RNA sequence: GGUCCGGUAGCUCAGUUGAAUAGAGCAAUUGCCUUCUAAGCAAUAGGUCAUUGGUUUGAAUCCAAUCCGGAUCACCA
């Protein structure tokens, strides 16, 4: 149990015993004591003042006395300022805490409680390579999955590949028209980029044809419909749905090129999945749903035969669930997939990591699923995140204004390499070691950059300004870890098992206090589905250690006991930094 | 127009289950490397928390209205 919880419990008991006041634990406000006051944690008294009709000073004194007298192992002192009761926790408590936990690499994490969760993330289209926006999605999804695991859940990471549809056909038709049989193998190009180039080519050609048609007197609407290349793409989609063998073969071939490319990127950025769904297998799933919905009178049929649901009572609109030609729409197959996921994995919670542009869609999805009594409907959770935009506005792959994921990673790794070389601290590293370090630092900086911001906020990325390696960044935290490891190497770890001295300096205590909060932070990140909580914590912890490091020497401590205490403090800080960064998907180096 | 999200230092962001003098990083200025890694530390400066009103012992935080930015309301995904 965390110290804050213990104080909350003790306060509850005190209020009960002194004033027969029964109060819910969560209504007892415990804050960290501000640094300018004496104490570690603060009980805010204002809410009781009125009920108990006492002055803040009197109340504080009574509660303070009672708390300290009845919890002699926990508190050593208290003081009252205005309506705040500041409590000082015994040094022994902190030292014992450190003694007990400093070697545990899993400190702060919970054991598997069997709570099943599914996290769907990444979900790429197979007609173009990944861009910066996908990276935010991948990092978020992966990290949230790991955070939930650390908080005791049993997590299945999944990905739905959008491998069918008109967008794929566009790349296919352009390849047929312009490639002259070229392949990723023959050009040496990464498969996803290769296919993406033809997607761009399609749009170039499409635009050209529209202009020509407009030039010959057609209106824009007509031109868009009649452009031969677009008609060809639509015909191809039709042929694909009919299962025409040569089209299916081409589709498979080109998708495999893309998968080969994705594999490389996923491996590099550390995305992984236990289950992959392909839309080509799931897009027909909604059929039974429609039947079921009509039987349950959740859906209704219009005169033209199309099927709808009326969500106006829920503040939304009427929504189409099946076209009049009997084909299902996106929302319908999505519900079908939700049902299938539940049948296969029985998750209590099913998380969808999808951009905030689909807020409405996911709201509708959950609502329909609930109305249909689809099992697991209540567990649907949309982890909505803001778009990554350029200073000029949104990225558009059709217009080529995207920041490519592979390029971005390459650039970050290159910058990491340049910084490292300039500093010249690892000149004895082998080529392989250097390469690994550059990856660790470059990708670490990138992940930290994208994860340190609240997911729901949209963020602007300026390609002109490179991502920083100083301050509130991944490398800063990594650097702190490397620094600590250097001390531990020189001291050959921690030798003494003794609890050490009874006194703690301000910076030492601050650090232990921070470390103690780690489990609460993991819990918070899990309930909020928010990795930025951990990024902020990692930074604050590292910053605190650096302050301690410059002020006090570990190796040349005043006494052997002090040295042992500081070694433990250092080791635990390194462990918690590694653990926190691990949950963000960021590696920490031994040296840098 | 309806719905949802955002507006905090020059820039990027914490803080939003109400609580003590609103915090970081970057950028700016200044100091600190012959002692454990200076990718660091310490300090200075920088604020009408979009605006107005309300609730409260107490509001960046809650409520109302207004202004600004974005998303969405497709037989697209």
The percentage helix is 40-55%
List how many beta strands DSSP finds. 14
General form:
globular
User: Whole-Å distance between the termini?
Assistant: 36 Å
Q: Low-confidence parts lasting 5 or more residues at pLDDT below 50?
A: none
Count of individual helical segments: 22
Structural category: alpha/beta
**Portion in strands:** 5-15%
Write up what this structure looks like.
It contains 22 helices and 14 strands. The chain has helices at 3-19, 46-52, 56-70, 91-101, 132-150, 166-178, 184-187, 191-215, 220-226, 228-242, 245-269, 279-282, 286-295, 330-345, 359-371, 405-423, 431-451, 474-490, 506-516, 518-528, 532-551, 560-583; strands spanning 30-32, 41-44, 75-81, 84-89, 115-120, 153-161, 275-278, 300-301, 307-310, 318-322, 349-355, 380-385, 388-389, 459-460. Strands 7-6-5-11-12 form a 5-stranded parallel beta sheet, sandwiched between helices. Strand 1 and strand 2 (41-44) form a beta hairpin. The two termini are 36 Å apart. The protein binds one RNA strand of 77 nucleotides through helix 2, helix 15, helix 16, strand 14 and helix 18.
Keywords:
592 residues; alpha/beta; five-stranded parallel β-sheet; four-stranded antiparallel β-sheet; 22 helices; RNA-binding
Show the helix and strand layout.
Elements lengths: L2 H17 L10 E3 L8 E4 L1 H7 L3 H15 L4 E7 L2 E6 L1 H11 L13 E6 L11 H19 L2 E9 L4 H13 L5 H4 L3 H25 L4 H7 L1 H15 L2 H25 L5 E4 H4 L3 H10 L4 E2 L5 E4 L7 E5 L7 H16 L3 E7 L3 H13 L8 E6 L2 E2 L15 H19 L7 H21 L7 E2 L13 H17 L15 H11 L1 H11 L3 H20 L8 H24 L9
Parallel strand pairs: 5-6, 5-11, 6-7, 11-12, 13-14
Antiparallel strand pairs: 1-2, 2-4, 3-4, 8-9, 9-10
The structure holds one RNA strand of 77 nucleotides.
């Amino acid at each position: 149990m965390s110290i804050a919880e213990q104080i909350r419990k003790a306060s509850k008991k005190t209020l009960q015993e002194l004033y027969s006041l029964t109060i819910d634990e969560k209504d007892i406000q415990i804050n960290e004591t501000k640094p300018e006051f004496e104490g570690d944690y603060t009980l805010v008294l204002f809410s009781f003042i009125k009920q108990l009709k006492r002055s803040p000073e009197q109340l504080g004194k009574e509660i303070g006395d009672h708390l300290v007298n009845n919890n002699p192992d926990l508190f050593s002192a208290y003081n009252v300022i205005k309506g705040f009761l500041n409590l000082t926790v015994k040094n022994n408590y902190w030292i014992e805490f450190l003694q007990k936990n400093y070697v545990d690499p899993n400190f702060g994490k919970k054991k598997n409680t069997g709570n099943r969760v599914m996290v769907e993330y990444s979900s790429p289209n197979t007609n173009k390579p990944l861009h910066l926006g996908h990276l935010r999605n991948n990092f978020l999804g992966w990290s949230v999955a790991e955070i939930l695991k650390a908080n005791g859940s049993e997590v299945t990471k999944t990905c739905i590949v959008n491998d069918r549809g008109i967008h794929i056909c566009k790349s296919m038709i352009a390849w047929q028209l312009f490639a002259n049989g070229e392949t990723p193998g023959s050009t040496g190009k990464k498969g996803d980029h290769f296919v993406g180039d033809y997607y761009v080519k399609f749009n170039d050609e499409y635009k050209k044809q529209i202009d020509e048609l407009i030039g010959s007197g057609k209106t824009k609407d007509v031109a868009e419909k009649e452009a031969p290349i677009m008609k060809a793409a639509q015909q191809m989609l039709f042929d694909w749905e009919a299962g025409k063998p040569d089209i299916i073969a081409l589709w498979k071939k080109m998708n495999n090129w893309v998968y080969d490319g994705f594999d490389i990127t996923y491996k590099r950025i550390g995305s992984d999945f236990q289950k992959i769904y392909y839309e080509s297998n799931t897009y027909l799933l909604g059929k039974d749903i429609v039947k079921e919905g009509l039987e349950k009178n959740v859906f209704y049929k219009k005169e033209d035969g199309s099927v709808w649901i009326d969500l106006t009572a829920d503040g939304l609109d009427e929504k189409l669930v099946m076209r009049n030609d009997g084909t299902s729409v996106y929302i319908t197959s999505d519900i079908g997939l939700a049902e299938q996921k539940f049948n296969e994995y029985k998750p209590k919670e099913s998380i969808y990591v999808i951009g905030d542009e689909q807020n409405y869609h996911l709201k509708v999805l959950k609502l329909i699923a609930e109305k249909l009594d689809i099992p697991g409907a209540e567990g649907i959770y949309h982890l909505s995140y803001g778009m990554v935009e350029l200073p000029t506005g949104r990225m558009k792959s059709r217009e080529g204004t995207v920041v490519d994921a592979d390029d971005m990673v390459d650039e970050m790794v290159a910058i990491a390499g340049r910084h490292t070389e300039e500093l010249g601290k690892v000149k004895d590293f082998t080529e392989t070691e250097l390469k690994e370090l550059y990856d660790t630092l470059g990708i670490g900086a990138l992940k930290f950059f994208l994860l340190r911001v609240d997911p729901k906020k949209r963020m602007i990325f300026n390609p002109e300004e490179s991502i920083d390696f100083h301050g509130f960044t991944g490398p800063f935290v990594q650097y702190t870890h490397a620094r600590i490891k250097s001390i531990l190497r020189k001291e050959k770890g921690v030798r003494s098992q003794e609890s050490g001295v009874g006194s703690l300096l301000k910076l030492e205590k601050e650090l232990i206090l921070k470390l103690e909060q780690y489990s609460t932070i993991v819990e918070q990140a899990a309930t909020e589905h928010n990795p930025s909580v951990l990024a902020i914590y990692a930074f604050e912890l590292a910053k605190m250690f650096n302050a301690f490091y410059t002020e006090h020497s570990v190796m040349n401590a005043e006494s052997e006991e002090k040295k042992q205490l500081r070694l433990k403090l250092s080791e635990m800080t390194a462990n918690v930094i590694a653990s926190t960064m691990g949950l963000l998907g960021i590696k920490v180096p031994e040296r840098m």
